[in-house]
Amino acid sequence: MAGLRAGHVVVVVGSRAWATLRNVPAPRHIASGKVREIYEVDDERLLFVATDRISAYDVILNQPIPDKGRVLTGLSLHFFDFLETPNHLVGTDLSDVPGLDDEDLVELRGRAMVVRRATVIPVECVVRGYLYGSSWREYRNGGGPTTEHLPGGLRLADRLPEPIFTPATKEASGHDENITEARTRELIGDALYGELRERSIDIYLRASAYAAAKGVILADTKFEFGFADDELLLIDEVLTPDSSRYWPADQWVPGRDVPSFDKQYVREWLDTTSWDRTPPAPDLPPEVVEGTRARYIEAFDRITGTSFDSYLAGKR
Ligand code: Q0Z
Q1: Ligand 1 pocket, residue 119 CB under 6 Å
Q2: What is the pLDDT of residues 96-108, one digit of tens each?
Q3: Contact in structure between 164 and 149 (CB atoms under 8 Å)
Q4: What global pTM score does this model have?
Q5: Largest Cα–Cα distance in the chain?
Q6: Which atom of ligand 1 lies closest to the CA of 37?
């Protein structure tokens, strides 16, 4: 969180404090992701924050997309509520999080969750209902970890006969590496493998049926789980456009690339430049920032069936 500062001095003139008073330390920073930040609340809880940063072609762009983090947090909250599966969410009230000043609260509004601190299971639980991305590349190139249970003869973006559980590990490089069922069982054991697979596929089936009713295909998604007090919890962000591949149903044509709901617009603009997809990315013109923001908000409204404005209004 930019703007969190450690203990400032209390300055009082007469009986009136005229400076922002800080005599408590800011929350300790725990971890940075490409687009998310984690801070410590106390021994049992973390502050999970979605920033407005955006990546395209695996590169963080120079311009944030205003409110993108709020859209993603709103979608995670929506799906925690919809799924009713044990999860890490404690709440969104920040009034008893120590160390936040008024400026922090403005910045965090709608984009932060207080979550239960869990022991993270070191396997990304990917579920795929369609053949796309790294799985399509493995399939086309003769097969790999994600394709071991697939029939032959499938095309790019085909719907799979049934959803498949295709775990991955987070590599130091920052890239996920798909791993086989046997390797996953070695890493976490058969019992936990079975539980994660069942929970992940169950959540995918419910969320994809929900999305389908809104004219949206949930092509694939990635979950993380952790243990807190021996309870297996769904953690992290859930079913956001950063953790999932959402397609407008009317844009899906098997055999062809399918435009993604959120990033297609910014990718198409980047494709009009001569950028070679290595950092740094070109600066986004204001109209591309605004157009991208509008698409995130449209995705929120379409998927939740509510309005982003009403979501924000509920966050004081
Ligand atoms: C999640 C990540 C990052 C965002 C740690 N409830 C939890 N308990 C313990 N740890 C985590 C969670 Cl969600 C946890 N991550 C992934 C890293 C920003 C998410 F830097 N790391």
Answers
A1: no
A2: 999 999 999 999 9
A3: yes
A4: 0.93
A5: 80
A6: 18
23-37, 224-238, 259-273: lowest mean pLDDT where?
A: 23-37
The encoded tokens of residue 214 equal 């809104």
Classify residue 137 by burial, with Cβ atoms within 10 Å: 0-12, 13-18, 19+.
middle
Q: Which amino acid is at 155?
A: R
Question: Residue holding tokens 């509520």?
Answer: 81
The ligand 1 atom nearest the CA atom of 88: 6
Specify the long-range contacts of residues 294-298, CB closer than 8 Å, at least 24 apart: 295/261, 295/262, 295/264, 295/265, 296/65, 296/67, 296/68, 296/71, 296/241, 296/262, 297/67, 297/71
Q: Decide: 220 and 130 in contact? Cβ < 8 Å.
A: yes
The residue whose two tokens read 């940075």 is: 32
Lowest mean pLDDT among 17-21, 141-145, 308-312: 17-21
| Sequence-separated (6 or more) residues with CB below 8 Å from residue 310 | none
Ligand 1 pocket, 86 CB below 6 A? no
The answer to whether the CB of 40 is under 6 A from ligand 1 is: no
Tokens of 149: 């249970």
Q: How far apart are CA 239 and CA 242, in angstroms?
A: 8
Spatial contact of 121 and 235, defined as CB atoms under 8 Å apart: no
Distance CA 106, CA 314 (A): 14
> How many whole angstroms separate alpha carbon 150 and alpha carbon 164?
9
What tokens does 153 get?
């003869």
